Amino acid sequence: MRSISLILKQFSRSVLLIAGLAMMGSAAHAQGDAAKGKGIFTTSCASCHKLDKNGIGPALGPIVTSDTNDKWLTSWIHNSQALVAAGDPKAVAIYKQYNETPMPPFPQYSDADVADVLAYIRTGYAELQKPDNAQPPVVEEKGPSTMMVLGLALVVVLAFVIILVLNRVVGSLEKLVSKKDGTYTEQDELAAEVVKAERKAKVMALVMNKKFVFFVALVGFIVSFIWMWIALWRTNVHQGYQPVQPIKYSHELHAGVMKIDCQYCHSGAYKSKNASIPSLNVCMNCHNAVKTESPEIHKIYDALGYDPEKRTYDASKARPIQWVRIHNLPDLVYFNHSQHVKVGKIICQDCHGPVQTMKEVYQYSPLTMKWCIQCHRRTEVNTKGNAYYDKMFAVHEMIKKGEKVTAAAMGGLECGKCHY
Ligand code: HEC
Ligand code: HEC
Ligand code: HEC
Ligand code: HEC
Ligand code: HEC
Ligand code: HEC
């Protein structure tokens, strides 16, 4: 009965929630589409702004809810630095208030897009303010740690040793007691010795038994063969490789908690063969104002020859940071990121694992030939709307019609086919 009432309760709650959301949606529609705005906010604003907490930029919920001058907000979001440069007093005041951290311009968003974002900020913040919407704390589920397992194993081994020792002690004590009593006679001594000799003879018989020796040797051979086989397959496979990096840069914090898009730093993965590591200037977009006192951030300043007091760069003092490369295919393999990420639409995490939860990046996949091939065997390719396959179809048609097919028709004029 309890469970039925529980289900009913949950059902009515979700109906209420959906009705509420629908009503909110229609209310918001008058000005902007909050659902669309949420998408824009997540990709472009969430790395610096939260609705209810200060981040790199101020908490937007209270500001945008109280400031109803949407025209000014729109021009700020399109290009805040232009407003500051034009001497708009409100813009200059805000810019000063946040230690002159410039907000990047967003000319790519239309007025309607910005209206959607503002609608999302207002409705999203109103939602957060409702007391029953407080998120329940996330309880992290953790399996037994290795320390616990090791400790348990140690306890078991210790208990075993103690039992053995106690057994021996009890045995010799019994012998002593019976000797004192006089119940322990020479016959007993003899009997004990006979038992010992019998045991020895049994062991000797086993050792001399050819079948048994053969069996042991066979098992030993099989075990060492399997071990060698595995070891050979693992040579040059660096799965799990996790070197210590020169700066304690955390993907968990930047890509996970702050939700900075991978593309912000590794844009190469979408356009070229190499994903590439971002230059430190990318870090400075935020770290010229964020955590300026941290010794880790000072490593960035030192590497760039940047003086945080004077806010000047001295190129003569600059020296590159030596990130330790983690993923490394041998030179005999050609691997192209954009082919997989952009054309194949494979997400980074399929190959690199949950990078957004890693404090320090490690090599998640084996990067063996078997790994590449297994994925190629099972992944279906979507050929629709793909220029590469359109060209293949065209060539196919030419062959069918008996026309001359040149290397150029097969893409032999494309820069990327001959150049890295
Ligand atoms: C790289 C960080 C960054 C990103 C990304 C960013 N902002 Fe900002 N934003 C700031 C900072 C910093 C300020 C404080 C003002 C200043 O220093 O220019 C600010 C200020 C603002 C303000 C003015 C607040 C006030 O006091 O009136 C609004 C509105 C705003 N941001 C909206 C947005 C929206 C919408 C987006 C996404 C389209 C966005 N921001 C993306 C950093 C950012
Ligand atoms: C703020 C910039 C930034 C963002 C955002 C970012 N990265 Fe990185 N990434 C770095 C830097 C710097 C390194 C080099 C240091 C290191 O290995 O931690 C790196 C290293 C890596 C490496 C290891 C490269 C090697 O040496 O083989 C992988 C894989 C990677 N990032 C994937 C991702 C993925 C996937 C995302 C998105 C979920 C992401 N990164 C988001 C800056 C960033
Ligand atoms: C979009 C803004 C942004 C970018 C880009 C960015 N960071 Fe950060 N980073 C932050 C913020 C915000 C924090 C502080 C979070 C907190 O309050 O602890 C931080 C924290 C750190 C810390 C920890 C500092 C400490 O002592 O706690 C390190 C190290 C760091 N970042 C390195 C980097 C490096 C290296 C890059 C470039 C590859 C980079 N960050 C790019 C916003 C950014
Ligand atoms: C199909 C698997 C696959 C996907 C998808 C993939 N990577 Fe990689 N990534 C690799 C391999 C393999 C290497 C090693 C390349 C080498 O050594 O030449 C690598 C290397 C890297 C490196 C080291 C520097 C470099 O350019 O070689 C970074 C950073 C990186 N990947 C980031 C990303 C990001 C970000 C994404 C998503 C946008 C992504 N990768 C998607 C397989 C993949
Ligand atoms: C997660 C799955 C996955 C993994 C892992 C993967 N690939 Fe791929 N690969 C694909 C897909 C999907 C395509 C087809 C993309 C397209 O053209 O639509 C592809 C295409 C290719 C192509 C182009 C083939 C052609 O005919 O144009 C090459 C070359 C390639 N991969 C090399 C590699 C190498 C080298 C590795 C291992 C280091 C690897 N791939 C790992 C999924 C994967
Ligand atoms: C069929 C193969 C092929 C194609 C396609 C191709 N290239 Fe080249 N490219 C070469 C070769 C080979 C060289 C070196 C010639 C030499 O050293 O004299 C070269 C040299 C160059 C150079 C001079 C590099 C230097 O350092 O001297 C540039 C720039 C260049 N190519 C750009 C392009 C661009 C842009 C495209 C696409 C529109 C392209 N290439 C397409 C084969 C090709």
TrEMBL record:
Gene3D superfamilies: Cytochrome c-like domain, Cytochrome C3. The chain crosses the membrane at residues 147-170, 212-233. Keywords: Heme, Iron, Membrane, Metal-binding, Signal, Transmembrane, Transmembrane helix. InterPro entries: Cyt_c-like_dom, Cyt_c-like_dom_sf, Multihaem_cyt_sf. It comes from the Bacteria. Pfam families: Cytochrom_C. The keyword Lipoprotein does not apply. This is C-type cytochrome. It comes from Mucilaginibacter myungsuensis.
